[in-house]
Amino acid sequence: MIKFFTKKSILIYTIVIFFGFTGGYFYYVYDYKIHPKEKLIQYNLEQNKQKDVLAKKLLPNSKLIFETKYLGNGQTIKEEQKLNYSLYGKSEDEISRIYSGWEVKKFSEEEIFLYREKQGFPADYYIISNIGGYVCLLKSDGNEGTELIEKTDITVESLTPYDRERVLKKIITNSKDEAYQILANLSS
């Protein structure tokens, strides 16, 4: 029978293993001394990619915040929702593609903050304006559109110069009662 483990073979195996580990160690050290910045840049890029993607697990207080500034009156409406499971694992670019028309202001595991500006007025705002020479009450739908609520028999010509100017520029209120109070004052 052939003997594989003689004193001479054990010594040779030990020397080969020693030089193998030593050579590998020096190759590793030599490689990082010559190209250390390239290795760090690659490591940092991998780290940044991980930061730009939401975690796979749901944090209990994670929020998705929508903020809309209406240019008609400058009011800002903020709406908060619990972060949806379907958004986890998505990058900031993917979120901005999903919510096109919105600008991503903040992106983290705790909060995604989306912002946009819209023409018009927020929903359920009342506008007193001129249509066909008559004072009318309109209601905003929040999407740049309005619905005619009431066309009064008050002509714009019959108003005082101050009230005429206000109606031509549009009088905006966020309450139906306030809008009817203004109409009552205009008719007297």
Tell me about this structure.
With 188 residues, this protein is an alpha+beta fold. The protein folds into 3 domains: 44 residues; 56 residues, Roll (Ubiquitin-like (UB roll)); 62 residues, no CATH class. Helices cover 38% and strands 29% of the residues. The protein is built from 5 helices and 8 strands, in the order ααββαβββββαβα. The protein has a 4-stranded mixed β-sheet, with helices on one face. About 4% of the residues have low confidence.
Blueprint (SSEs and pairs):
Blueprint: H1 7-34, H2 36-51, E1 63-70, E2 76-82, H3 92-98, E3 103-107, E4 111-118, E5 126-131, E6 134-140, E7 146-155, H4 161-169, E8 171-173, H5 176-187
Parallel strand pairs: 1-4
Antiparallel strand pairs: 1-2, 3-4, 5-6, 5-8, 6-7
Core attributes:
single chain, 188 residues, 3 domains, 4-stranded mixed sheet, 5 helices, 8 strands
